[in-house]
Design a protein that fits this description.
heterodimer, A: about 170 residues, mainly alpha, 2 domains, globular, B: about 190 residues, 7 helices
């Protein structure tokens, strides 16, 4: 168990270190589901849905969730520290020592490159969370409505998820 | 960082960021709006915090954008202790909720296969995640052809299960190479 928690800590640090504005869902899918089998695809969908419906960083709570699965409350704490210590320290250290980063064109281009990859990976994660055996027409309609509602009208994710749940219970 | 005399108390920082963390639904922009409102209140009238700087750091630094914004805002208010208190207070509600969810989920819900009845919710979730992908894309795409690149990454991940970390590192390196090429052009 301790080895698993240490492994989760390292993976959380890694995910946090390479995520610039998105893409953590895909990395949790890769490391938490495919490579280690700590959680299933269904578990990941559940925690992501919960993350979007609650305040704070949506996808990063997955580290806490996996930590709890592996090692109870202690594991959850370690997973949480692993995933949040990087932006905390980076922001603090940048504010103190690296003010020139704000105007460095290399930082801008680096983040733009990673941003493009993150957009593709997050889109892939959208397909990755589909755990339903048979995807029917209604699933596609619900997903498309959620996409438009979120993108065009900025509808609160909690409202979208509850509406999706309700429509799914009635129609599927 | 603000002067020592004008720095807010630890309690004020905890209250402000705990409140923000409790009601901050829907991404970093909500957090920024809420913080702007809080920092404009009477409590912080003597504490000039440049939220734009925090937001910029949030965009260019690794990890959760909200955490970088909150941490830097806390740092501007009261140095390291401000950053630490702000981050912990902001994250406390979300982390407590997800831990509670994990306890309930792994204790009761997982065995009952409740997700079998959540087809609609999962479909809606994939729509929300796809919307996020579009938002991230909009922010970084400077030429329409780059959308094809994003689609390529998506397909490579879905069908070929390419290593996500490798993709990220390749794109980051490509960004740095582009920056170096532009610098060379300017020099010539």
């Amino acid at each position: 168990m301790i080895a698993d928690i240490a492994h989760l800590f390292v993976i959380s640090l890694l995910i946090s270190s390479v995520t610039f504005g998105g893409g953590s869902q895909a990395l949790f899918y890769q490391y938490g589901v495919l490579q280690t089998g700590w959680i299933s695809k269904t578990d990941l969908s559940a925690v992501l849905a919960f993350g979007y419906a609650t305040p704070g960083p949506a996808a990063f709570g997955t580290a806490t969730f996996i930590g709890y699965k592996i090692g109870g409350i202690g594991g959850a704490v370690i997973g949480t520290i692993g995933i949040f210590i990087v932006p905390f320290l980076a922001s603090f250290l940048a504010g103190k020592y690296l003010k020139h980063l704000l105007s460095d064109p290399r930082a801008k281009h680096f983040v733009q490159g990673i941003g493009l990859a993150a957009a593709g990976l997050v889109a892939a994660a959208a397909f990755g969370v589909i755990t339903i055996e048979t995807v029917g027409v209604w699933h596609i309609i619900i997903a498309a409505t959620a996409l438009v509602g979120s993108l065009k009208w900025n509808v609160n994710p909690l409202v979208i998820l509850l509406a999706g749940l309700l429509v799914g219970l009635i129609l599927l | 960082m603000v002067t020592k005399q004008a720095a807010p108390s630890n309690r004020q920082i905890i209250q402000t960021f705990l409140k923000t963390g409790t009601i901050s639904f829907g991404g970093w922009s909500t957090t920024a709006v809420l913080l702007e409102k809080e920092l404009g209140s009477k409590t912080y009238r003597h504490n000039p915090v440049d939220l734009k700087v925090s937001i910029t750091y949030g965009q260019i630094l690794p990890g959760a954008t909200q955490v970088a914004i909150v941490s830097n805002t806390g740092y501007q208010l009261k140095g390291f202790i401000g950053a630490l208190l702000a981050t912990v207070s902001y994250l406390l509600p979300a982390v407590s909720l997800v831990t509670l969810f994990a306890i309930i989920y792994f204790g009761y819900l997982q065995e009952r296969n409740i997700t079998d009845h959540m087809g609609g919710l999962i479909a809606a979730l994939s729509g929300i995640i796809l919307a996020n992908a579009c938002r991230i894309g909009r922010k970084h795409v400077t030429h329409p052809l780059l959308w094809a690149l994003i689609a390529g990454v998506c397909l490579a991940q879905v069908f070929a299960h390419m290593n996500a970390l490798l993709i990220i590192l390749i794109f980051g390196a490509a960004g740095l190479a582009k920056s170096a090429a532009q610098t060379r052009e300017k020099t010539v």
